[in-house]
Amino acid sequence: MRIAFAGLTHLGVCMSIGAHESGADVVAFDPDTSRVEDIRRADFDAAEPGVVDFLRGSHPAYHVTDDVKDLLDADMVMIALDTRLDESGENNDSEVVHLLNYLAAHVPKHIPIVVASQVRPGFSRRHRDLYPELYYLMETLIFGRGLERTMHPERYIVGVADTSKVLPAAFKQYLDMGKCPIHVMSYESAELTKLAANFVLSANITAANSLADLAQRIGANWEHIEAALRQDERIGAKSYISAGLGIGGANLTRDLHGIKEMADRLGVDSSLASTMLGHSAYMRNWMLREINKLRRDRPIGSMAILGLAYKPGTQSMRGGAGIDLVETFELCMDLRVHDHAVPMPPRPRESRATAVKSAGTAMLGCDIVAITTPWPEYSPALQKYLSTAPTVAILDPFRIIDHSWVLTSASRVIQLGISDEQP
Amino acid sequence: MNNLDGRLVVLGATGFVGGHVLSRARELGWEVLGLSSKDLDLTSPGGAEMLSAILRDGDTIVHGAATVPARNALELIQNLQMTQSLVDGVVGHEIAQLVVVSSDAVYGGESGVITEVSACSPDSMHGIMSLAREMMCLEVKLPVLTIVRPAPIYGVGDPHKSYGPNRFIRQMIESGEITLFGQGAAIRDHVFIGDVANVIVRAIMARESGVINIASGQSISFAEMAELVCQSGSDGSHVAVVGSESLPTFRNYDISNLVKMFPDFDPVSPAVGVRQVISEIEGSDHG
Hints:
The structure holds 2 protein chains of 2 kinds.
Chain A: E1 2-6, H1 10-21, E2 25-29, H2 33-40, H3 51-56, E3 62-65, E4 76-79, E5 84-85, E6 91-92, H4 94-106, E7 113-115, H5 123-127, E8 134-137, H6 146-151, E9 156-160, H7 169-177, E10 182-186, H8 187-217, H9 222-230, H10 251-266, H11 271-284, H12 286-297, E11 302-306, H13 321-329, E12 334-338, E13 353-355, H14 359-363, E14 368-371, H15 378-386, E15 392-396, E16 411-415
Parallel strand pairs in A: 1-2, 1-4, 2-3, 4-7, 7-8, 9-10, 11-12, 11-14, 12-13, 14-15, 15-16
Antiparallel strand pairs in A: 5-6, 8-9
Helix pairs in contact in A: 8-10, 8-11, 10-11
Chain B: E1 8-11, H1 16-27, E2 32-35, H2 47-54, E3 60-63, H3 73-89, E4 97-101, E5 112-114, H4 125-138, E6 145-150, E7 153-154, H5 165-174, E8 177-181, E9 187-188, E10 191-192, H6 193-205, E11 210-214, E12 220-221, H7 222-232, E13 238-242, E14 251-253, H8 256-261, H9 270-286
Parallel strand pairs in B: 1-2, 1-3, 3-4, 4-6, 5-14, 6-11, 7-10, 8-13
Antiparallel strand pairs in B: 9-12
Helix pairs in contact in B: 1-6, 2-3, 3-4, 5-7, 7-9
């Protein structure tokens, strides 16, 4: 089977490699020559495990091209271009539409085209006139787990124009490679499922954050509560109830905006989406509130910022707490900033932020250490640092510090959801 | 760094906020013009013309002229007349910045955490008046429009003696007895007048536009505030509980936006602020 993937951004690259590794012949296509060149040079997010190694290797059944003619003998074409977010975090599907138009003009009409890009409900039905053999496949990629998720999906959700018709053989064959349940439903249901999943996840995160914030104030420990909740079958062991700095990343919030916009337009109450977005903004300021409290007790002259990536396994800073702190405090205190995967963007001339090569160097002699990305390598660095009994306040929203590492009350560890003043 | 291009014109110059802004600006050596209702009656029919004659291109205006709190329709209308005179008076002038001194009453009186994105839902005449003043000023075309919404303010020079630190401090000094309604469980953020003036001056220096809530970020209950005043006052001061408290509401501020805007700004804590007010009042009483 020969599958073409169109759109060589994060989603397309991960999906195409996944299909290759599952045994398909793959054409990785993008009309944008510069993107094709990047992939040929294996220039890709290094924090996505396995991808760069794969791209550096030689794979006769993985053909990277910007020539649309290479798609003519494909059994199906998957549009897997990541949908851009505009400045306000809204979905901007214009590039996906453009690509679909381009393919519709060049691909023979019998080849099914499957849209796996992040699109809003109504997209597939609206564009079906353009290309009758149009299908939708919900993507469930997670940054940092791209290949794993594409090769071992928990289920496939497929949107079709008419649920009474059978799927094209090639598409069915592709889905069968996933060895997982396949849910075929209308375009609208499948497209909404994508948003629904993110909405429910966001609701869980919001509930956890809200309660963890409360727990921290009343002498409780959210981690203990979380562990107990996970054993409740109705909540589930894998539920998104770890407390954090708001709803991380841009995809979940984008889909909340999407639901809100749709609901507002259709006269459906959208207050839950608004509440979650508002609470996420509030939680993102957790570090600021804690820093503000700390400086009531003593002046703060320097701060180490550990991590610029919005989460481990990605090079994206979007929505990350690290860059927020840099931008807020760079003019009024010395900041030492570390991230081994994400370089600090250029700073204004008067900035007092310096990028340093190791977490240990960043922390040395600082008044505050802010752990803004829980990179696994920070744990040993913090353990070593705490063994020197430093006088410091460490902001640890992700709770990566084990309290047994703390040797002196001069090293104060402030963790989200965990009161450091046990009653 | 501390220089201001052009002149600072403060409307409501003898008012609580206006007076402190004026003092702070003078300390910085700015060219200032303070106008009180005696100098310029903005409620009079010729108020706008008179203001227009006074204003110069490049002026920065702090609009602190108001009758507060507005308790009835008449006071609301008076306040809107003052603001209308301002709106009409700036026409034809190139004003560098307008700072509108508003109030957190625009958010209504419900419990909750308030930020600049909290919905405005005034539930008092004063709140409606404050929001209307803001909206009237939004109609003016200006390069920089700043709306500051302080939490309840305390400090020397407050003419209202409203329930809270100002009244507690005055009672403590005069009789040693602070009157607390019921349990005093309601929670408020009380912001020190010096901080309000400071933020307004900073907002002018940075030419910040938009809404800025000014609060301490350290809400406490009325009972805690009364206790704080007691502890900071003379020996024998005590709290007397009278009557009962209506259903208490709990109002907290998330001042993250203020921190982001002015990261080196450190609001005065209630304990420090109360001590400072007491010492200033006692100093002036003895003087």
